[in-house]
Design brief:
- This protein is mostly helical and 267 residues long.
- It has one domain.
- α1 crosses α8, α2 packs across α4 and α5 crosses α6.
Length: 267
C-alpha cells in the first residue's frame, strides 16, 4: 500500500514538472512581452522594421544565451556540477565550431524564415491584456510542443526521414549550440512545427519577440546538459544518448504517448 501511494505521488510530481515547464514558459513570455510592449509602444513598426527587429532579437538572443552558458556558466566547475542531474556519461566530443561562412548562411536562413513568416501569418492587434497574452502563450507552447513531438518522432521512426535527422545526432553528448546543428531540410521542418500555431492563432509583434527570446532560452538550455530554469539537464541528453524517446520539448506529450525515457537523478 505504501509503495502504491509512493508511486502515485511520484507520478503526480512528474506530471506537475511537465505542467510547470509550460507555466514557466508562459509567465516568462508574458513578462518579456510586457517589456517589448512598453519599449515599442510609441513606435510605428512597418513590415520591414518588424522583420529586422524579429530577426535581430532572435539571432542576438541565440548567440548571447548560448555563449553565456558555454563560456560563462560552464567555466565554473562547481556551478556546473550543481546544475546537472545527469547520470549517463559519454565520451567527450568536439562541438560545432563557428565559421564566418556558417554564421552568414545561418543568418540568411533565419532572415528568410522571418520574412516568410511575417509575410504570410495574420497580424492581430490584441492589446496588452495580461490574461489575453497568458492565454495566447499557453496555447502557443502546448501546440508548438505537440507539433514538434510529432515531427521529431517521425524523424526517428521513418527511415527516409531519419537520414535527414542524423546530422543533429552526430553528437551523443550535447552542448547548447548543438540546438542549431541541423540539416537544411530539418531546419525547415522544425521551423514549420514551431511557427504553425502562429498561422492558427495569429500574432502581435511583441508576442513574437517574447516567444523567440524565451524559445531560444529553453532550446539552448535543453541541449546544454544543465538544469537552469526550464528543462532538466538529463531530459534531452537521454534522447541523444539512447537515440529514442523524449521526443517533445519536455515530457508532456511523451508521457501521453508512452515514449518517455525517465530521468534518473543523482543521489
Amino acid at each position: 500500500m505504501i509503495n502504491l501511494n509512493t508511486s502515485r505521488y511520484e507520478k503526480i510530481i512528474d506530471v506537475w514538472s511537465e505542467v510547470e515547464f509550460y507555466l514557466k514558459v508562459v509567465i516568462c513570455c508574458v513578462i518579456a512581452q510586457q517589456f517589448f510592449h512598453w519599449t515599442l509602444g510609441n513606435i510605428t513598426l512597418n513590415f520591414s522594421k518588424q522583420v529586422i527587429l524579429y530577426w535581430a532579437i532572435g539571432s542576438l538572443s541565440f548567440y548571447g544565451i548560448g555563449l553565456a552558458i558555454e563560456k560563462g556558466i560552464k567555466q565554473n566547475k562547481r556551478l556546473t556540477e550543481r546544475l546537472t542531474i545527469r547520470t549517463v556519461k559519454v565520451k567527450e566530443q568536439p562541438y560545432p565550431s563557428f565559421t564566418a561562412k556558417g554564421i552568414v548562411i545561418g543568418e540568411l536562413k533565419t532572415l528568410i524564415t522571418v520574412f516568410s513568416l511575417l509575410f504570410i501569418a495574420p497580424e492581430v492587434h490584441r492589446g496588452n491584456g495580461l490574461l489575453l497574452n497568458f492565454g495566447w502563450f499557453l496555447l502557443r507552447i502546448v501546440a508548438a510542443d505537440f507539433c514538434f513531438y510529432v515531427a521529431h518522432r517521425l524523424f526517428h521512426e521513418r527511415k527516409k526521414l531519419l537520414k535527414i535527422h542524423l546530422k543533429h545526432h552526430e553528437f551523443a553528448d550535447t552542448s547548447s549550440f548543438v540546438a542549431g546543428h541541423k540539416s537544411l531540410t530539418e531546419y525547415i521542418v522544425v521551423t514549420l512545427t514551431d511557427v504553425l500555431p502562429i498561422f492558427i492563432f495569429g500574432y502581435d509583434i511583441t508576442q513574437l519577440l517574447a516567444w523567440t527570446l524565451i524559445g531560444n532560452a529553453y532550446n539552448l538550455e535543453g541541449h546544454s546538459s544543465l538544469s537552469l530554469c526550464f528543462i532538466s539537464s538529463d531530459f534531452h541528453d537521454r534522447h541523444h544518448t539512447h537515440f529514442k524517446g523524449n521526443y517533445g520539448i519536455r515530457g508532456f506529450w511523451d508521457r501521453i504517448f508512452n515514449t518517455l525515457t525517465p530521468i534518473r537523478e543523482k543521489h
